[in-house]
Design a protein that fits this description.
44% helix, single chain
């Protein structure tokens, strides 16, 4: 998972942030959503509801939101990422 995220960092195919991810999911065209291990349960519930309507997978990053922010070279924590189809 880490290498896949690192490869997509410089491209337009990676969406970072909970609000942007939810907006992109509603709009469509998402192939995968990656969540931090400590992402809020409300976010998980929202994504599960949208996943029933659209075709995308929800994966666990296996790291906390602080570690995910560091991996993406951001000075803030990241709870959710989305990969465009």
């Amino acid at each position: 998972m880490k290498t896949e995220i690192r490869k997509l960092l410089g491209t337009e195919k990676l969406i970072i942030g909970t609000d942007r991810v939810l907006k992109a999911v509603r709009k469509g065209g998402i192939s995968k959503v990656v969540l931090a291990s400590n992402a809020p349960e409300t976010l998980r519930a929202q994504l599960e509801r949208y996943r029933k309507l659209a075709e995308f997978s929800v994966d666990d990053a296996g790291m906390t939101n602080d570690e995910l922010g560091t991996l993406c070279k951001k000075p803030f924590s990241i709870a959710a990422l989305a990969i465009l189809a």
